[in-house]
Amino acid sequence: MHLIDLRSDTVTHPTPEMRDAMARAEVGDDQSGEDPTVNRLEELAAEMVGKEAAMYVPSGIMGNLCALLTHCGRGDEVVMGDQNHIFWYESGGGAALGGLPYHTVRNGRYGELDPSEVNAAIRPPRSGFAPTGLVCLENTHNRCGGTVLSREQMQSVADVAHERGVPVHLDGARIFNAAAHLGVPVPELTSTVDTVQFCLSKGLSAPVGSLLAGPAPFVSEARKARKMLGGAMRQAGVIAAAGIVALEKMVDRIPEDHEQARRLAERISQLPGIELDLSTVQTNIVVFELTAEGWSPEEFTAALAAEGLRISSFGARRLRVVAHHGIEPEEYARAADIFESVLTRTPVLVR
Ligand SMILES: Cc1ncc(COP(=O)(O)O)c(C=O)c1O
């Protein structure tokens, strides 16, 4: 059976153009800075997010971790939203490997942080207080439903942090989605923060990789963290070549994913047993609550899968679908039909 896989935008496959570029990539030893394709990707990435330099890393998690380890000294506290990916899904890497306690503040419904709460979370210098080393933002905000922080929201938090002498890192895994939603160039958002991590391997369809961008001295320091974590690669131009295609060819089509996510969300929000706040559907992610009686989330997702649709679970009764490259418009329509057919059926029949 043909499966429509809407679990994540990380399931995207490299395009034929990417595979072609990978086959032809000029390579060298990147640990010595000698891979021309990686160098080209890093320059292009830095330029596209308006930073001085960038470093190619195997994953978004490693990009964020290199940022934490480079910004902070052992024992520094990292302030972040209580729904942030770094807090939930990155194995507590900063705490485990850098001795960095996490201090969370509440994320609002759209992933925003209240600047006064961030200000209160930043410790004054006092013996006994862990010094605050970093504030982290996330845009788009995954757990909040792919929601977007405006430039003003980012700036107001960054202002508070900077006034207290604390740098700001952005987990911008999907920053191109945020910029597309707002209709602004990415640097308009990233200029508010000191450093940014963004992913090539999600909505941009590259098979591997993320970039950590910021001031040149910061990025050279971050290269030490990458090496320590085992993330310095050799002839990585083979994968970086796909990343260049991602940045040159895949950014402009992002609004298509947003439109498809919106359409699908509008349809499934009408169904009984689904509680979906359409105001959170701003980009390619749709998060909703399964309220249908008699269905456990596991049974529900299994029933969808039995009809050819894969979606992901987001804890308790929250579920997520993500629109991405490679899914045709008729497949989104079919996905909505599958939701409808499963929800209008008694769960007993599929047990
Ligand atoms: C907001 C956010 N940050 C970071 C990551 C980590 O990226 P990776 O899976 O490449 O490590 C993800 C992955 O889904 C994410 O959604």
Describe it for me?
- Helix content is 41%, strand content 15%.
- It has 351 residues and is of the alpha/beta class.
- It has 2 domains: 10-249, Aspartate Aminotransferase, domain 2 (3-Layer(aba) Sandwich); 253-350, Aspartate Aminotransferase, domain 1 (Alpha-Beta Complex), CATH 3.90.1150.
- A 7-stranded mixed beta sheet has the order 2-8-7-6-5-3-4, with helices on both faces.
- Strand 5 (132-138), helix 7 (151-163) and strand 6 form a beta-alpha-beta unit.
- Helix 2 packs parallel to helix 11 (237-249).
- The protein is globular and about 60 Å long.
- The model has no long low-confidence stretch (mean pLDDT 97).
- Residues 10, 59-61, 85, 138, 142, 171, 173, 199, 201, 210 line the site of pyridoxal-5'-phosphate.
- Pyridoxal-5'-phosphate is lined by residues 10, 59-61, 85, 138, 142, 171, 173, 199, 201, 210.
In a few lines, what is going on in this structure?
This protein has 351 residues and is an alpha/beta fold. It has 14 helices and 13 strands.
Give the SSE map.
Layout: E1 4-5, H1 16-24, H2 36-48, E2 53-57, H3 60-71, E3 77-81, H4 85-89, H5 93-98, E4 102-105, H6 115-121, E5 132-138, H7 151-163, E6 168-171, H8 175-182, H9 186-190, E7 195-199, E8 210-214, H10 216-228, H11 237-249, H12 254-268, E9 274-275, E10 285-290, H13 297-306, E11 309-310, E12 312-313, E13 318-322, H14 329-343
Parallel strand pairs: 1-11, 3-4, 3-5, 5-6, 6-7
Antiparallel strand pairs: 2-8, 7-8, 9-10, 10-13, 12-13
Helix pairs in contact: 1-11, 2-11, 3-10, 6-7, 12-14
